[in-house]
Amino acid sequence: MAEERQTGRAGVGCAAGLVTLLAGVAVGGWLTLSILGLGFDALLRGAAGESATPVVGLAATEAPPLVPIQGQAAPGRRLVWDAPIPLDTDTQEPDLLVISRNYDLEPSSDSIVYFSPDMHAVRWESQPLGDNGSSWVVAYGDEVVLVADGERLVALSRDTGGPAWEAPLTDSIADSICEDCLQVFGDVVVALPQDGRLQAINAATGAPLWTVRLREATRQIVAVGGKVGVPDSESAESNNGALFLFNPQDGSPAGVIKPACKDTDDPYESSISYYGRTGHDPAGRTLVWLVSSSPVCLVAYDVRSGAISRTMLEDFGSSDLSPMHSLWAGDTLYLSDDEQIIAVGPQESRRVLVSEDYDLRPLAASEGVLLVQAERTRGSSRLELWVVDPRTGEHRWERVLEADDPLDYRGDTGDFTAMLTGDTLTLVEKHDDPEEVVYEQIALADGSSRVRAVVQVDDAGDYIRGALWGRGHVFLPIDELYAVELTSGQTAYRWP
Predict the structure, then answer these.
(1) DSSP assignment letter at 96
(2) What is the SS3 assignment for 460?
(3) Quick one: the chain helix, strand, coil %, rounded to 5?
(4) Exposure class string for 362-385: b at 16+ Cβ within 10 A, else e
(5) Is it the case that residue 470 has pLDDT exceeding 70?
(6) For residue range 185-226, what is the model confidence (pLDDT) as tens digits?
(7) In the sheet that 480-485 helps form, which strands lie side by side, from edge to edge?
(8) Beta pairing, strands 424-432 & 36-37
(9) pTM higher than 0.85, yes or no?
């Protein structure tokens, strides 16, 4: 970024380029199939009150029988807690880690399953690991899968799922507020528990390597060119924040990045809070911060060169870099302060969209298209999806949703999920009357429906607990885990 212009469960850096829904986050260009959709017939063009676009090509098709999932997993009634975690495999669909509870064990317990979509098989299931699976923090390396459960860190063999080692943590990791606070740096595991003690552990043996007590109990680990980055206060006497870098092998200091900007009418610099979020593009080439100066300032740091650029964001009213309010698309960053969406990229900063009557959130972007979640705030509340030209802000078309509960972050539950792929919008939405989960592919050009299907699920009244978008399927935990074909909306298989 030029002078005129920024992670859940931790450690999930998937080379396959997948994205989880909330946080939200960006889909790789290799997703070339269709997208999932909601079965709501109110496609709107332009202003409210115009006639809906007709739904076409929706002839009913007979659902094929579900493919049984083979492999080593204990029988029993299951609850899959969240979207699967994709692994860095070179298979057609990436292999997945699935956290679930088995209610038929005595007592019921949670475990991790290693599932291979290409094989339609469970490769292994871990031993029962307790009843805290909904708040586990999971990461993985070349040899081990790591589970932070309270004040213990459990390592499982990535090949077999058998226990490799167990090590104590000084405190639990706050999964809901700590971003990427369990990561693997080569042969070193780094954890940041709630007590603010940065801990490093040998990934092969579980032996402790080093500990750094931070001045503040902050809540993020950032990988910066192979270094461990952690926000902290500049000094014991300062409220200003900075990103401190450490060598993963021995914990020695490796530098400090101090994002700051000068106010327009003030000679003094404004700095980030030590609790401020550090944003980063999916490739890890650029770090960004929003500084609460006047106006708000975006600071960008080039990881390779160390160059820093600053962009003043006139009339922008937020310093929130959470996945709900930020979206990377290539080297362009879309930011929302609810009333507007702006785009910051190389050599430019521009307003894309503004509305006084809606809270706006960027959901996904592809070449020439921005998908926006718009929640109406004037009058009765409702959710809409807008397909927008990111250069001009022109609305191509809009869809009013039957759903009213978005998936806002990993671990959240909701009643719809949407994604852009190729020249279509794919939408999955829970309907109440009749009670069903509906899939739809919608043409980005004109909003016409290309494919519509009712997704086969055991109980359509259950929550959608997340979504993982793969090459040929979207994986949906709706109590059980369902693999839905992107081309047809048919449920290809379920587990268990």
Answers:
(1) E
(2) coil
(3) 0, 45, 50
(4) bbbbbeebbbbbbbbeeeeeebbb
(5) yes
(6) 999 999 999 999 999 999 999 999 999 999 999 999 999 999
(7) 19-20, 468-469, 473-478, 480-485, 491-495
(8) parallel
(9) no
